[in-house]
């Protein structure tokens, strides 16, 4: 079969399309014929970071949707022909291929009216946003939530989920994304380049400050934005660094949540993976009912996958790029 593989530990420069062996499965695995792949910032970063368990050439990629073609003898949840999607374990063979072996408890069933593209697109960003809002932050209807980097993949899904949960969303991003964020339901959109964020947040919350902040971009301003949280508020980081925030957290009694989706495989138990799949089904049901837009902005061929990753790395795409495999 065809697969995109790192032939050496040199990042995207070593990513090549070539032939490799078809996947083998254990008794609890299924083989999935991949129909669609979604690309993420995480993919090109992981290509540079690597894993100690990798053996080169190494297939990478996490977000996929496809059809089950074979099942191990202990598989009870799926049968050949089932439409499924997954956030693949990045430590093992990845999703940038025509087929993949996935443990049955790490797969979600895709509704008939949800496309493979939409199912793949919601995996990484959607699960991150869903885990942050449903499993980490403890918020009530009417609470004020700041989302820094709201127009990106995680931020856009978080904005929609927050509004479904009746939160007041203060979205921060570049001004060019204002109409997009308003269409997703944001109550207030602030331009980090031109607006006085502190003054605007104080105005929107009538001086009470926000209840929680989701930082999606590892911004140097995250510390300043954290200062807009009320005493005993909450901060969730889905980016790489909290910077100066811990000092502010100590002063304000903030609860800090680090979000690590891939950690569910390296450090989580089966129960944690079950929660992940429950969240997957929540997202898929929202897409099925028309409540959630997965944010796909571009479709590319399998042969163009590396170009798509380069586009993301260079900041030339804010929506989801989906690779059509079949």
Short description:
31% of the residues lie in helices and 27% in strands. The chain has 326 residues and is α/β, with parallel strands linked by helices. The strands form three sheets. Strands 3, 5, 6, 7, 8, 15 and 16 form a seven-stranded mixed beta sheet that branches. Strands 11-10-9-12-13-14 form a six-stranded parallel beta sheet, with helices on both faces.
Low-confidence stretches: none
Tally of separate helices: 11
Q: Give the CATH class of the largest domain.
A: Alpha Beta
Second rung of CATH, namely the architecture of the largest domain: Alpha-Beta Complex
CATH topology value of the largest domain: Quinone Oxidoreductase, Chain A, domain 1
Number of strands: 16
In CATH, the homologous superfamily of the largest domain goes by the name Medium-chain alcohol dehydrogenases, catalytic domain
Which structural category do the helix and sheet elements fall into?
alpha/beta
How much strand content do the residues show? 25-35%
Inertia-based shape: globular
Total domain modules: 2
Tell me about the largest β-sheet: 7 strands, mixed
């Amino acid at each position: 079969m065809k697969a995109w593989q790192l032939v050496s530990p040199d990042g995207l420069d070593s990513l090549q399309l070539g032939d490799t062996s078809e996947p083998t499965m254990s008794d609890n695995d299924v083989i999935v014929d991949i129909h669609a792949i979604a690309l993420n910032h995480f993919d090109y970063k992981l290509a540079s970071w690597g894993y100690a368990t990798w053996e080169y050439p190494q297939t990478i990629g996490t977000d996929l949707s496809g059809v089950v073609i074979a099942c191990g003898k202990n598989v009870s949840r799926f049968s050949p022909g089932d439409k499924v999607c997954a956030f693949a374990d990045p430590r093992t063979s990845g999703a940038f291929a025509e087929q993949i072996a996935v443990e049955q408890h790490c797969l979600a069933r895709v509704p008939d009216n949800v496309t493979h593209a939409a199912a793949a697109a919601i995996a990484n960003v959607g699960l991150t946003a869903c885990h942050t809002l449903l499993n980490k932050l403890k918020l009530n209807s009417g609470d004020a939530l700041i989302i820094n980097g709201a127009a990106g993949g995680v931020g856009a899904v978080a904005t929609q989920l927050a509004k479904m949960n009746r939160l007041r969303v203060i979205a921060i991003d570049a001004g060019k994304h204002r109409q997009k964020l308003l269409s997703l339901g944001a109550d207030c959109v602030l331009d980090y380049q031109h607006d006085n964020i502190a003054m605007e947040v104080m105005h929107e919350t009538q001086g009470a400050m926000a209840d929680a902040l989701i930082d999606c971009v590892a911004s140097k301003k995250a510390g300043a934005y954290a200062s807009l949280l009320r005493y005993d508020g909450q901060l969730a980081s889905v980016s790489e660094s909290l910077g100066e925030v811990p000092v502010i957290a100590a002063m304000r009694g903030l609860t800090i949540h680090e979000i690590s989706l891939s950690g569910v495989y390296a450090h989580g138990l089966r129960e944690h993976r079950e929660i992940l799949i429950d969240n997957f089904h929540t997202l898929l049901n929202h897409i099925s009912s028309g409540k959630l837009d997965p944010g796909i902005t571009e479709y590319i061929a399998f042969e163009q996958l590396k170009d798509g990753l380069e586009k993301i790395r260079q900041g030339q795409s804010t929506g989801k790029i989906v690779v059509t495999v079949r």
